[in-house]
Input
Amino acid sequence: MPELIVQNLAGREVKVAQDQTLLKALQAAGIDWMHACGGKGRCTSCRVIVLQGLDNFGPLTAAELRYRESGRLKVNERLTCQCMLAHGNATGKVPEQTKLPHMTYSS
Output
């Protein structure tokens, strides 16, 4: 089963089931992750910065393409509410702008 390692959450490893978005996997692992629009792909608050394994993700969704084209989603970012880890593992981190105040982040 693919895994997402969240670097700035002390290297927390999150198993990502097939056909499961990263946001659902993070929630199943008990990790709070910003998602202002409720996981509908209408904002970019749930984005993850992908440090390794970008090729292991599935294709960009329509929402991700829209934000990429408007410059609101960088090449190394994905929306956790939209993307799936198709195979292999990936390492990512929570962007500074969307860190939650009650969570403890590592460097």
DSSP finds two helices and five strands in the chain. The mean pLDDT is 96. The chain has one domain: 3-96.
